[in-house]
Amino acid sequence: MKNYLILISILILLIGCNNAAQDGVLTMNVERSDFKVEIPATGELEASHSTLVNVPSGLRGPQSLAWIMDNFSEVKAGDVVARMDPTREGFRLDMEQLDFDRLGLDSEIQTKRDNTINKGLTTDTVLTEQEQDLAERFFSEDVRVYTKIDIIDQMRNQDYLMAKMDFYGWGIEQHGSQAEAEQQLIKLKQKSHQAKINRYANNLNQMEIKAPHDGLFVASPGWNGSIPIAGDMMWSGMTIGILPDTSNMQAKLFVLESEALGLAVGKPVTLHLDAYPNLDISGKVIQLDSLAKAKDKNSPVNYFELTVSIDKTMTDIMTPGRQLSAAIHATDINDVITIPNQALFQKSGEYWVYLKTSEGFLKQAVTPGNRSLNRTVINSGLSQGDVIALTTPPKRSRV
């Protein structure tokens, strides 16, 4: 389309130019004609409304994609469209379960050990009480029966037994507190492992991604522009595809930044599917990005992305992803004066042309209007039949 416009411009110049001017200045005759600007674009079809198919939000941590349904496959509600690799999560679950069970055994062993120690302390306490009872029962301070040394030994023995009882009482109390603390520590460790067990079990229950309703599954490109394949890493909430409503289609188009002059929301568009090049499809620009950006991160070329509504969706041939070309009718004005951009001069907000008169070329102020890549509409300052210079006249010409 761009080459076509350039060819027309060249033909107009060849027809209108007066190459035989005596002063050697290339000129053209000013004529009235229709002024049309069509901006070329390329893109693809997409549904106006789609349901996102996402990785489950409850899936914790990065997961490896094991399988994904073929692009543009028909699905029913509940069909599995993608599946994560459960190997790593299953291994982690087994390891955490093993550690949890090991702590359970540690708890049982610790309980039996504590019971043994407690039983030993209790037995020693009973024996000591019996010894203390005998010592008190047969204690005597009668010097006629015992010598003073024997009496002192008996008193010391009673003190010893009393201290021994205090020691066993303290030991039972301390051992009970220590045993309880050790059991609490084991329970805390088990709680940590249980949380991980629940996490991995929950992940394993969400390894399959299912279609929320009937439709056509269309894989969604990632940040690098490629669709998901087995082996890709997935994260919670990531979109892997869409289920489009194919009854109402629209077009996603891209226009080169250098060719976007006159592009705006509301402009009519004519589209052609690559598979049906002779079929005209009408539409209208409904959304336009404010800034141009590269389609490929490794490309320096910037494009404006825009969305075009389609007047009539033909469901039998219009499917998401079908490639198309388009012509955006940026300007369509009938019976106006236009001149090549090279014949229009400007400085400090003033515009002029060099008008040929009997006295030479005069500087004629003009008011420009709509503009394309190669021509400009002149709203005032020129009339049909005027002759203007296509380049700056030489200084010898009267200006």
Care to describe what's here?
The protein is α+β, with helices and mostly antiparallel strands. Among the domains are: 76 residues, conserved putative lor/sdh protein from methanococcus maripaludis s2 fold, CATH 2.40.420; 67 residues, RNA polymerase II/Efflux pump adaptor protein, barrel-sandwich hybrid domain (OB fold (Dihydrolipoamide Acetyltransferase, E2P)), CATH 2.40.50.100; 118 residues, Helix Hairpins, CATH 1.10.287. The chain has 3 helices and 23 strands. Strands 3-12-16-14-13-17 form a 6-stranded antiparallel β-barrel. The longest helix has 57 residues.
Protein traits:
Helix Hairpins, 6-stranded antiparallel barrel, 3 helices, conserved putative lor/sdh protein from methanococcus maripaludis s2 fold, 31% helix, 399 residues, elongated, disordered N terminus
Q: How many H/I helical runs?
A: 3
Strand content: 35-45%
End-to-end C-alpha gap: 38 Å
CATH architecture of the domain at 87-204: Orthogonal Bundle
Radius of gyration: 46 Å
What about the largest sheet? 6 strands, antiparallel, barrel
Low-confidence segments? 1-8, 13-22
Decide which structural class fits the backbone. Answer: alpha+beta
How are strands sequenced across the largest beta sheet? 3-12-16-14-13-17
Average pLDDT, to the nearest integer?
A: 87
Oligomer type? single chain
Topology order in helix (H) and strand (E) letters: HEEEEEEEHHEEEEEEEEEEEEEEEE
Helix content: 25-40%
CATH topological fold name of the domain at 87-204:
Helix Hairpins
CATH class of the domain at 87-204 reads: Mainly Alpha
- Principal-axes geometry comes out as elongated
